[in-house]
Amino acid sequence: MLRKKHHIIQLCFALMALLFMNNELKAQYGVNDTIVHEAIVFNGDTMELKTLGNLYVYGYMTEAQKKANAKYNRLRNAVYVTYPYARRAGIVMNDINAKLVGISEKSARKKYINSREKELKKEFTTPLTNLSVYQGKVLMKLINRETGNNCYEIIKEYQGGLTARFYQTVAFFFNSNLKQPYDAQKDDLVIERLVLEVQRMYGYTDIHKTQSL
Known about the structure:
Blueprint: H1 2-29, E1 39-42, E2 45-48, H2 63-100, H3 106-129, H4 133-147, H5 151-159, H6 161-173, H7 189-202
Antiparallel strand pairs: 1-2
Helix pairs in contact: 2-3, 2-4, 2-7, 5-6
C-alpha cells in the first residue's frame, strides 16, 4: 500500500514538472514576448547584427605636429584678420583700374588717382598700422588675389616707379616683399582654402581678379 502511494506521489511530481516546463515554454516563446533583432547574412549564414558603442582613442601630438598646427592657426588667424581689408581695398582698386581705362590724359589720371588715394588712406591707415609684419605679408598676398596685381605694380601704377621702389625697400627691412605672387593652386593653396572659409562664414561674394594691369 505504501509502495503504491509512493508511485502516485512520484507521478504527481512528474505531472507538475511537465506543467511547469510547458508554462515556461509558453512564456519564453509567446507572441507577446518575442524580441526582434536585426540580422545580417554573411557567407550564407544568418547572424544577429549589433552596433557596438563608440570607441574613443586619444593620442598626443608630436613636436612636428604641434609646430604644424601652430603654423596653420597663425595663418588662419592672419587670413581672418586681413581678408576684409584686402577685399575692401580690392573693390576700391578694381574700381580705380576700371575708371583709369577711360582716362588717357596724364594730369587727369593723376588727379583722379590722388582723389581715390585719400579715400584709401582715410579708410585703411589706422587699422593697417595695427597689423603685425606677418599679417602684413598675408595682406599683400590677398590684395594680389583680389586685384590680380602685386602691391608693387599697384603702387607703381598709382604713384610711379620711384615711390614703388621706395616702398619695396621699406618692405625688405621688414622681411617682406611687395612683389609677392599669389598662386591659389600650389604655393598659396592653404590661404585660398581659408579665404573660401571666410567667405562662407561671413557671406562674402568673390571679387578676385586674375588679370594684371
